[in-house]
Specification:
Strand content: 25-35%
CATH class of the largest domain: Alpha Beta
Shape: elongated
Helix content: 10-25%
CATH architecture of the largest domain: 2-Layer Sandwich
Strand order of the largest sheet: 6-7-5-4-8
Number of domains: 2
Largest sheet: 5 strands, mixed
Number of helices: 3
CATH topology of the largest domain: Translation Initiation Factor Eif1
Structural class: alpha+beta
Distance between the termini: 51 Å
Radius of gyration: 17 Å
CATH superfamily of the largest domain: SUI1-like domain
Number of strands: 8
Length: 120
C-alpha cells in the first residue's frame, strides 16, 4: 500500500487497485462521483473552435454538457471516434483535436441535445 504524501490518503492498494482519495473506496466502487452536482447551465451545448495557446493547432471544444464525469468521458470517446481524432475530457469540457465542429454538432443533435455553434 502506498500513501500519497500531499493528501495523506491511500491512493493504491495491492488488493483492490486505485483508491478514491475522497471516499477511500476502490475506484470501481467509488460513490463520490454520484454526490458531485452536475451544473445544469442553460441546457444548451456549445461547440466552438479554438487555436489560442495551442501553437496554431485547431481544437473543437464542447461545453455545457450536463452529465456526470463517467458519462461525459463516454460521450467524449464517442465524439473522438466519430471524428477519427484524439482529444481529452477535463473540467467538464470535451476537446477534440482538429476542426470537427460540423461533425460534432450533427452527432450531438442526433443524440437529442440542443446544440449551438459558438464563436466565429
Amino acid at each position: 500500500m502506498k500513501n500519497h504524501p500531499s493528501t495523506g490518503g491511500l491512493v493504491y492498494s495491492t488488493d483492490s487497485g486505485r483508491m478514491c482519495p475522497e471516499c477511500r473506496q476502490p475506484v470501481a466502487q467509488c460513490v463520490c462521483h454520484l454526490k458531485k452536482a452536475v451544473s445544469a447551465g442553460d441546457g444548451i451545448v456549445r461547440v466552438s473552435r479554438q487555436t489560442k495557446g495551442r501553437g496554431g493547432k485547431a481544437v473543437t471544444v464542447v461545453t455545457g454538457v450536463a452529465l456526470d464525469a463517467p458519462a461525459l468521458t463516454e460521450l467524449g470517446k464517442k465524439l473522438k471516434a466519430t471524428c477519427g481524432s484524439g482529444g481529452t475530457v477535463k473540467d467538464g469540457v470535451i476537446e477534440v483535436q482538429g476542426d470537427h465542429c460540423d461533425k460534432v454538432v450533427a452527432t450531438l443533435q442526433a443524440q437529442g441535445w440542443t446544440v449551438k455553434r459558438a464563436g466565429g
